[in-house]
Amino acid sequence: MSVAKVTEISASSKESFDDAVKQGIKRADETLDRIQGAWVSEMKVKVDGGDITEYRVNLRVTFVLKD
């Protein structure tokens, strides 16, 4: 039997939402073992002078706990 845990992380990118997700998963993989999936729970942007300067995402990352 497997037991999984969900943890929430935030990530950002100056390029795109897609890049923010990739950077978040890449960083989570350095710390968490056995990542099974993730979903984006929130997307937002930082705006300066009418221009988008940063894309931000909150991710819920699911990983299986070690036996």
Task: Walk me through what this model shows.
The protein is 22% helix and 57% strand. With 67 residues, the protein is an alpha+beta fold. Strands 1-3-2 form a three-stranded antiparallel β-sheet, with helices on one face. The termini are close together.
Give the strand content: over 45%
Shape: elongated
Q: What would you call the structural class?
A: alpha+beta
Q: What is the C-alpha radius of gyration, as a whole number of Å?
A: 14 Å
Number of strands: 3
Largest sheet: 3 strands, antiparallel
- Poorly predicted segments: none
What is the share of helical residues?
A: 10-25%
Q: Give the N-to-C terminal Cα separation.
A: 9 Å
Strand order of the largest sheet: 1-3-2
Total helices: the number is 1
Mean pLDDT rating = 96
Q: What pattern of helices and strands is seen along the backbone?
A: EHEE
Write the layout of secondary structure elements.
Blueprint lengths: L3 E10 L3 H15 L3 E14 L2 E14 L3
Antiparallel strand pairs: 1-3, 2-3
